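Researcher: Structure prediction, please.
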Amino acid sequence: MLTQLTSAIPEPSVAIEHLGLSFADALAWCSTAGAHAVQLSATMPQTRVRTMDRSERRGIGDAVRASNAAATGIDCILPPEHLADPARADMAAQALLAAIEWAELLGRLAVTTWLPAADGHATALAVRTAVIAEAQRRGVTLAVLGGGHDTDGPAAIAIDPPVLLAAGESVDAACARAGSRLAGLRLVDLLRSGHRGPVLQPGDARLDALALAATLATIGFRAHPVIDARGWADASTGVRATLDRWLDRPLVARGSSHA
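Model: Predicted structure follows.
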C-alpha cells in the first residue's frame, strides 16, 4: 500500500551535508546507495556558496549530473540567532542571497531555509525583507521551515516532522493544511527514543508514514522529500533504510560503513 502512494510522489532526495562525508565522497556514496536525487548545501565546506565564484557554483551542478544524480534543492539553514545579531547578520544575509543566486543558476532550485517572523528583531527583519525580495526577483522558491506558523508568512513552506511530533502535532494534518504552499518536507522521524532518525524504524517509529504519503499524494506534492540525517546515530545505514522502506525496495545485507 505504501509503495502505491509513494510512487505518486517524487523519490526522496538525500541531504548530502549530513552524511559526514566530503562533497565528492557524498556523491559517490549516494550513487552506490541508489539515491538518484541530492539536496545541496550552501554552507558545507566544499560547497560554501558565499565563497564560490560563478564557475565554481556551476561546477557543483556539473559534478552532480556527472554522478547520474539530480540536484533537487539547496539547504541554507542558518542558526536563527545569526540573523538577529548585528555582528553576524550581514554575513548571514550574504550566504542567503548567494544561495538564491546559486539556485537560479542551477535551474531555479528551491532554497530551504529559516526566516524570522515579520514582527521580529529589526536586524532580522531587514535580512528577511532583503532575502524575500531577492528570491522574488530571481524567481526562486523559498521553502521556509516553520513558515506555516507565521501569519504573515512566505508563499511556500517546508515541514520538519520532528518539530511537529515533539509538539504533539500531526504531520500529515500539517501537510494537508499547507496544501499547495508545501514546497519542502524533511523525511525524518522523531523516534520513541527521543532522537531524530529514519522513518519506519521497527519498534521505534512515531511518524505515520502511510498517512503522510497519502496526504502528499492527495495534495499533489511535487517536490522531493528530503532525507535529512542530521543528528542520526548512523547516517549511512539510516538513509539507505529510509530509501528502501519508503520505496519498498528489496532489503539486502549491508554494513554500516560509508563505502
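Model: The chain has one domain: 2-247.
Researcher: Thanks, that helps.
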